[in-house]
Fold these 2 entries.
Entry 1:
Amino acid sequence: MLRIDKKTFKHDYIEKFREMHGKDLSEGTDNNRYEALGSLIRDYVVEKWIRTNKCYNRTGEKQVYYFSMEFLLGRLLGNTLLNLGIRDTCKEGLNELGIDLETLEDLEQDQGLGNGGLGRLAACFLDSMASLNIPGHGCGIRYKYGFFEQKIINGSQVEAPDNWLRDGNVWEIKKPDKAQIVKFGGEVRVESLNGELKFTHMNYDPVLAVPYDIPVAGYENNVVNTLRLWSAEPVNNEFDFSSFNRGDYLKAIEYKNSVEAISQVLYPDDSLYEGKRLRLKQQYFFVSAGLQSIIKHHKKQGIDIRNLDEKMAIHINDTHPVLAIPELMRILMDEEGIGWDDAWRITINTISYTNHTILAEALEKWPIDMFKKLLPRIYMIVEEINRRFCEDLWNRYIGQWDKISKMAIISDGYVKMAHLAVVGSHSVNGVAKLHTEILKKQEMANFYYMYPHKFNNKTNGITHRRWLIKSNPELTNLLKETIGRSWIKHPTDMENFERFAEDKAVQQKLYEIKRNNKIHLANIIAEQQGITINPDSIFDVQVKRIHAYKRQTLNCLRIMELYNRLTENPDLNIVPRTFIFAGKAAPGYYLAKKTIELITAVGDKINNDKRIKDKLKVVFLENYRVSLAESIIPAAELSEQISTTTKEASGTSNMKFMMNGAITIATLDGANIEIRDEVGDDNIVIFGLTEREVLDYYQKGGYSAWNTCQGDERIKRVTNDLINGCYSYDREKFKTIYEHLLTYNDEFFVLKDFDSYLKAQDRVDSLYRDFSKWQSMSIINIAHSGIFSSDRTIQEYATGIWGSGYLYKNL
Ligand code: 26V
């Protein structure tokens, strides 16, 4: 915890402001004030950062490196203040200077270097590693443009670049002296020297990888870990003017552009793999730079390279950083002179891998030709890993050629990244129980049979510091008043809150807190979208990436059905509802973009129909991002987790919602199952096909969307409404959605689950009418959310995978 009193803080702040802006505080803009505050807090953090690093070097503690293409951090100011334990002091100090802390916090640009769940998980993990005293650091890419900014224009998504670095970034420190060279292309010369093969990479295109370090402060424990993000620069920063003739000049510019392209932009897809060469380049770029710098660091500490696996663990977030496996082999063999067997032992012991999806279309594989040309030495190593692996398979599965070619790392003209990840690591984990079971029994059954010891489950989690303490201060206070503070460091202690489930005073207080959060969100909605919503309606929320398997369409069709009932009978007795959606569609994902158009069209019609007396409102909030989620989630009452069973690996917003007291309506998919197990069937609303039923339909067929539609008048009507001009004069507008459901037999069982979903929604309506029942459900959900803190998840990774104990000492 940082010991700083209000007086010192005020003094430091005023000084910092003058030094940065060359004027007095009273003359500055809010932006000036934010910059000065961020910069001052960074200075405070740097002290602890230096001390933490010294401590790590002194103790020789095992270091964990979390490699990820994405870190979706959001804003840093508020959470850093919270973790340093100085948020209240700063707030009061600023107040006395006539400055509102929250106003400044709101000025910070989100750091949006991720697509969704996978990237946000990496950010939660960084927070938990630092807070649990684990020496764990992030390694990724400093994209110049993060996840695109979404605008809704005439009801459709329009993408704009996210120029998040425009006004600088107070949190990063550039470290040019730690830059590394990454080599692309060229060829490999193989020589035999004294009976040993020597590999020399020649005629390659060098790229300079320059690191930017971001401090990650733990919660009141003096630990500051590092997130290192790499930026690509040409090797000779500017092109070489000495050879200034036309040809060279253009070549030099071309080289500069092609190098800078590497860290230019985050790929905005998260479920459709495309074999884009630039993405492969990005992957090798940060993995190679990261590994080189880590190994140099460890060597500097005097560590015997043969014991590297005792001193570091490298975790790969999905297959995106899987080139860490051959790259580590390359460094150990070609640069450190270690033989294959030792290098392989070190590599396997060092690397562990998390799988985040079973969607076949998201599995990465690279065309051999592309791979070989771009990374010739790495390809040779992958080929050798594959040769040895296949030899092993031949001995085990004599004559079973089909099985062998299915499992091979290189086959059918591709390098299969998930296979490389399983073969080259000591641990493979899924992110929720069901997901891990599906990996073991279906998607990776052959590998599980061969390496059962590698497979394990680590159910995801979320940091309760951002998703409860920071974003829901009133609920945090209620918890402190009722059960004390132990849950802050030991989140499962939130279970003590269950004792208050039937306590009328606590129920009332909880209701008031939720209502305040709803009003806060209603104000944002009024400001952003110009829509007035009723704070006494049920806030029914689905916010996440727009994807067919997440079934925003199912949600939308039931709104259309309810609207039909209401127009026929405006006196229908329902609790008024506000349906809130937000989420981005991948720019090339036509069906997802059409889904947004449908939601906004349904909203336009319903919100302006006087007949239904404001009983329903539909809102699509633009530009979903971490900071917006922090306003939406504390205000939610119903959490929509309605993916097709088996398709959502875990989900993490489900955990954030329950922690903030929302009731979940869900299929038994991903971590919804664990949530159900925690709160019991009475405190969650479950519907839909079971895992078995879904798998049977996929394997054996037998589902007819058309017949399901014909057998249900409500479905007939709402699907018809997609093409009869009800929601658009242009009858073609939603035809793709209609066809996906009816012509192409509804891949994600939207119509099959429709009836069950409607019944579940009716249950929600009647539960909500019972004030005391609803509040007690809400209390039970909050009380059981502690287990979904990423602190629990990270403890499991640390003890079960990384073998890194805790440093329970104060730095
Ligand atoms: C895949 C691809 C495919 C190629 C284009 C770029 C790209 C970027 C990311 C991904 C990975 C998507 C996988 C993912 O985000 N999975 C989500 O992971 C969450 C954290 O484990 C989990 O809660 C969600 O259920 C799962 O969908």
Note: The two ends are 10 Å apart (CA to CA).
Entry 2:
Amino acid sequence: MSEAKKTIFSGVQPSGKLTLGNYLGAIRNFPILQDEYNCIYCVVDMHAITVRQDPAQLRKQTIEVLAQYLACGLDPEKSTLFIQSHVPAHAELSWVLNCYTMFGEASRMTQFKDKSSKHADNVNVGLFDYPVLMAADILLYQTELVPVGVDQLQHIELARNIAQRFNGVYSDTFKMPEPYIPKAGAKIMSLADPTRKMSKSDENQNAFILLMDKPEDIMRKFKRAVTDSDSRIIMSEDKAGVSNLITIYSLATGKTIDEVEAEFEGKGYGEFKPAVGEAVVELLRPIREKTEDLLKNKDYLESVYREGANKAAYMARKTLDKVYRKVGFVKR
Ligand code: ATP
Ligand code: LTN
């Protein structure tokens, strides 16, 4: 890691098993820049507890997300991979940033509104504060680029506003982060209801494809995927279901949208849906197999996240010290 390199930061919540949406929208892009950038990828367990989690499951899923980072091509020699709760600077900076975030702006976050209605019995302060912790994650490392799906854009804009406000009150402290959102795949839709985002916390198992799903489950879910009454295989705004499948097929095979439309011209869903299923089976097969292998080697995974936390803590401390000094805390 050299000082001259620009920094990339992103995180994924261990709130469930990873989906094809997480992969195509975010994780797929994580390894591609690891040679040119100082890349930092975190498993954000502190974000995950904003909705109720089973402790044993959370521990297991946290390790699984780390294994999947590696299986998707992240190299711990090149990138810093760690678990958020292992680096206390995230919680420390988020407290300070709370005091530079307006109640009104936090109230406008659509993810908060969505999750509050989904978990009406547990609208806790952490859920409200979620985007401020995310701003701390990003700003601690002087991040310039944040690869995420489009649903996270509003949170990155909030992080920019907080950074700008803090820099304005004191002096330049934080770099301005930019979102890095893929042109295709930024919002993969649910297979059961293509007007909604594919989400790992959906109650309907047929709504999502998991990276660890068995080939037969992947095939079954695609065959059942909700499409529209008109059976033409074309990309169109009023054909959410089929457009979503075309996007997935195009990303899984590397074919352009035009090529996909030409390939299935005059053909129906009976041919198209199994073809999408097969392409996704082949896309995910090496990731699933690599993850299974890695999960057998807990010592190795432990060495990766320990080493990662040490590197991250060192980088984070520099920013946190600066922030504490600027706001007027006495040096200890
Ligand atoms: P949850 O259902 O628990 O809210 P999630 O499935 O939305 O979780 P996150 O951990 O919040 O997943 O997201 C991890 C990354 O994956 C983020 O960058 C997010 O933008 C991206 N992402 C999540 N769902 C999709 C999707 N359907 N399409 C594209 N990108 C997605
Ligand atoms: N909120 C993100 C996860 C996340 C994140 C981050 C992403 C937490 N901290 C920092 C990018 C940068 C989500 O995907 N729901």
Note: The pocket of adenosine-5'-triphosphate (ligand 1) is lined by residues 12-13, 15-16, 19, 21-22, 24-26, 148-149, 151-152, 186-188, 197-201 (CB under 6 Å).
